[in-house]
């Protein structure tokens, strides 16, 4: 069998080249994803940055730790507080007896012409500069309230404007990379940021720990000092996001590779039905046929998997460099020397090759001699029973799970892991049922061209409809790409539109005022944008004639559900009467006016969500409190959060003021008054547009990676399969030439068939997209969110057009190459 397999590989190299390329690419992608994941799990320990030379750093309480019980096990759940507490004065007094205590203050600064973005300007007292250490490169240290020292983006002598007045740059320091500092005098920093949540103690660490026993503070020494750095969890969060991103991409890669490779192997075996019929006539047994096919797959699988591992070793460092360049990975991230990803990719590729050919080889061995010879010309008969049962079972599974999700938990369909994985089940089901759908769908698509003068349209229709397996195999890669593009991009677009609809329906204020320099919702990663209103500006905004103003602030509450899960919920703090006048909350029960300092407005996602019930919560600063449920909001898209009064949001700063006009007030005059008071003024429509959610960076790059892999894989597989199909039809094309067709007519026929196949795959992919997005739209309706279903038509047109170009080029080019010979010679060519 091995000798026959080797001879077959040599003589039918064009058939096996397609499966080799498809499989090696899949193994390469699996190796790349595995190497990236393995490297992200082996992260180096973070070193202190801002307090690299500080002896001891003492932080106020900035975490909430709650005991939980799971069965007989007792553990603790910990969450970061929304509003960390300052170090208590009594503790500071104790520490001052041990040595020098330097209060650290960090606050956002916005300077005209200064850096912005994720690492905006951060203000500090000059006395903390020595702990990084920062060293003066030009000028001197600040001595007066209006003097500052910055990094080297500015130069000494410059006078720049800030929201707190004009400052003069008197010195610069070298940039250390982790922040853009602005150093004030210690006194001025204390005026701008009265609250100090951490401090440096120049004393022995053991003495500091003894003094802090029983106090609600954290004592940081050694590498633990990195917890006092700005954004100390950024590496961990980046690696977690990377694991999710590349894990999803790896899962999709595995699915697409198995799907396409199995389809390619099945088509390669189907091409050889006449050969199998002749072997059976010559006396070969079905077992010998199956063993020969499996031996061929084993040889191709070993060679392709080894090649894929080599390509993956080359591609993984390039992917790591890309992840660093776009900010998905920390700057230190590189590919390690793990070996298990190569084993995983190699053996997975080999297994895929064997499984991909197994079903086809079993059918090839069971097919009778006369039937095999008859099917070699026309394969329009019904599908095998096993394929029909598998396809119907998967379709039924997808339908049942969708129905159960809609009934039990509609919100589950809005989660990324759900709308990424669900399309794969439908794609597989539709692909398995494709042979039953291809014939009627092809005749429908090609009906109009068949009515045109000439025989070209009719031949396109009949050839595509008669070659069911060929059409199904060629349409499979198009189906995968179109369905993934439509489902993933359509899901995010539909969800974003639903969130925008919620904002539009909830906002009834005529104007929304946010701090100067901020043009959209709060919560930005830009530290210079997460500022609140000062007391004077807030007072002026509240006293403008002809308006009702509702000042709200961002906070959080924490609740322990079922005794095992500590859940953080984003909260808005507002006075109930102004809130009711400027917003229309999506209430399922209760009234906004019932909110007071002893109550809370929750949503239906909470374990306890009945009006009048009491819930035990922890506020944003860790204070425990029992609050009565005053009202309950619908679940919506999951961003409804909760509402409390300002008394239950200690430490929160007002970052948004909604303004509603009273009857007869002049909108233009009120807008002018709001601008004079201070802040950035937006109309309701402007606020809704600014609040329109966009896809976050990790999701965007994740989908770009997934769809890029799918499109790359589809392009190569489509090209391979087209070349395989075209080389198998050399005699058919010669017969057309002998019947009187010109070379151009034959090539037009081949191109028309390729376009028809792409259209079939595109329609099936669009069907999968519609089902997936329809399920999401139904879930949104059940969650009381009214928004349209968004199908990404431009992206679908782009990927379908790319598939069409590839299909035409790689079908017409081999046909044109083959027709260089005389038609009589081609007609005598052996298959």
Write up what this structure looks like.
With 831 residues, the chain is an alpha+beta fold. It contains 25 helices and 23 strands. The strands form 4 sheets. Strands 14, 15, 16, 17, 18, 19, 20, 21, 22 and 23 form a 10-stranded mixed sheet that branches. Strands 5, 6, 7, 8, 9, 10 and 11 form a 7-stranded mixed sheet that branches. Strands 4-12-1-13 form a 4-stranded antiparallel sheet, covered by helices on one side. A hairpin with a 2-residue loop joins strand 2 and strand 3 (73-80). Helix 16 runs antiparallel to helix 24 (793-818). The radius of gyration is 34 Å and the shape is elongated. 44% of the residues are buried. The model is unreliable at 522-530 (pLDDT under 50).
Task: Compose a concise summary of this entry.
The chain has 831 residues and is α+β, with helices and mostly antiparallel strands. It contains 25 helices and 23 strands.
């Amino acid at each position: 069998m091995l000798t026959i397999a080797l001879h077959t590989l040599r003589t039918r190299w064009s058939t096996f080249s397609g499966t080799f390329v498809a499989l090696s690419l899949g193994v390469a992608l699996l190796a790349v994803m595995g190497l990236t994941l393995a490297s992200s799990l082996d992260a180096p320990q973070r070193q202190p940055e801002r307090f690299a030379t500080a002896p001891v750093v003492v932080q106020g309480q900035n975490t909430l730790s709650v005991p939980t019980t799971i069965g007989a096990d007792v553990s603790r759940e910990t969450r970061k507080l929304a509003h960390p507490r300052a170090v208590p004065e009594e503790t500071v007094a104790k520490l001052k007896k041990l040595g020098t205590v330097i209060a650290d203050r960090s606050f956002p600064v916005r300077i005209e012409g200064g850096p912005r973005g994720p690492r905006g300007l951060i203000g500090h007292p000059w006395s903390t500069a020595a702990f990084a250490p920062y060293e003066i490169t030009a000028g001197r240290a600040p001595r007066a309230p209006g003097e500052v020292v910055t990094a080297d983006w500015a130069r000494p002598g410059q006078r720049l404007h800030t929201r707190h007045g004009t400052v003069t740059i008197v010195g610069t320091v070298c940039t250390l990379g982790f922040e853009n500092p602005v150093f004030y005098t210690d006194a001025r920093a204390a005026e701008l940021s009265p609250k100090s949540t951490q401090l440096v103690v120049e004393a022995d660490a053991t003495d500091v720990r003894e003094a802090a026993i029983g106090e609600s503070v954290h004592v940081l020494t050694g590498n633990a000092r990195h917890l006092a750095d700005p954004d100390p969890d950024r590496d961990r969060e980046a690696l977690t996001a990377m694991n999710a991103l590349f894990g999803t991409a790896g899962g999709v890669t595995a699915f697409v590779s198995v799907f396409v490779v199995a389809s390619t192997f099945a088509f390669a075996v189907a091409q050889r039905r006449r050969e199998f019929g002749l072997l059976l006539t010559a006396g070969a047994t079905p077992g010998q046929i199956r063993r020969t096919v499996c031996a061929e797959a084993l040889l191709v699988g070993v060679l392709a998997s080894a090649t894929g591992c080599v390509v993956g070793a080359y591609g993984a460092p390039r992917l790591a460099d890309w992840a660093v360049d776009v900010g998905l990975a920390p700057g230190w991230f590189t590919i390690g020397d793990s070996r298990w990803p190569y084993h995983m990719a190699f053996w997975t590729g080999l297994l895929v090759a064997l499984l991909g050919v197994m079903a086809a080889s079993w059918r090839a061995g069971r097919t009778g001699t006369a039937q095999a010879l008859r099917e070699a010309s026309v394969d329009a008969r019904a599908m095998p029973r096993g394929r029909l049962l598998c396809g119907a079972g998967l379709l039924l599974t997808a339908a049942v799970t969708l129905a159960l999700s809609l009934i039990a938990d509609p919100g589950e369909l809005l989660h990324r892991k759900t709308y990424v994985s669900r399309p794969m089940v439908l794609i597989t089901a539709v692909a398995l049922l494709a042979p039953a759908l291809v014939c009627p769908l092809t005749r429908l698509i090609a009906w109009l061209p068949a009515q045109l003068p000439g025989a070209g349209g009719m031949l396109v229709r009949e050839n595509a409809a008669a070659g069911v397996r060929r059409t199904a195999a060629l349409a499979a890669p198009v189906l995968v790409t179109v369905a993934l593009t439509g489902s993933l991009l359509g899901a995010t677009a539909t969800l974003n539109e639903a969130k925008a609809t919620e904002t539009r329906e909830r906002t009834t204020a005529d104007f929304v005022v946010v701090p100067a320099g901020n043009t959209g919702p709060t919560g930005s990663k830009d530290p210079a944008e997460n500022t609140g209103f000062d007391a004077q500006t807030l007072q002026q905004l509240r006293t403008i004639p002809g308006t009702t103003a509702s000042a709200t602030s961002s906070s959080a509450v924490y609740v322990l559900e079922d005794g095992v899960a500590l859940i953080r919920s984003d909260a808005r703090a507002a006075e109930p009467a102004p809130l009711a006048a400027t917003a229309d909350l999506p209430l399922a029960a209760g009234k906004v006016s019932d909110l007071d300092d002893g109550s809370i407005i929750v949503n239906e996602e909470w374990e306890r969500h009945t009006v009048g019930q009491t819930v035990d919560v922890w506020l944003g600063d860790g204070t425990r409190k029992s609050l009565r449920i005053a009202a309950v909001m619908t679940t919506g898209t999951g961003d409804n959060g909760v509402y409390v009064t300002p008394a239950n949001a200690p430490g929160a700063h007002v970052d948004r003021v909604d303004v509603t006009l009273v009857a007869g007030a002049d909108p233009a005059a009120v807008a002018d008054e709001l601008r004079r008071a201070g802040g950035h003024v937006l109309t309701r429509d402007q606020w809704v547009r600014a609040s329109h959610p966009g896809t976050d960076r990790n999701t965007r790059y994740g989908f770009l990676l997934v769809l890029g892999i799918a499109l790359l894989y589809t392009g190569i597989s489509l090209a391979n399969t087209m070349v395989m199909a075209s080389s198998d039809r050399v005699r058919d094309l010669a017969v057309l030439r002998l019947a009187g067709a010109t070379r151009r007519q034959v090539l037009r026929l081949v191109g028309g068939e390729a376009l028809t196949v792409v259209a079939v795959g595109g329609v099936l992919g669009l069907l999968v997209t519609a089902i997936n997005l329809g399920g999401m739209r139904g879930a949104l309706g059940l969650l009381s969110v009214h928004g349209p279903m968004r199908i990404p038509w431009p992206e679908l047109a782009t990927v379908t057009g790319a598939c069409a170009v590839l299909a035409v080029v790689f079908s017409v080019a081999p046909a044109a190459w083959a027709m260089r010979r005389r038609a009589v010679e081609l007609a005598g060519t052996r298959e």
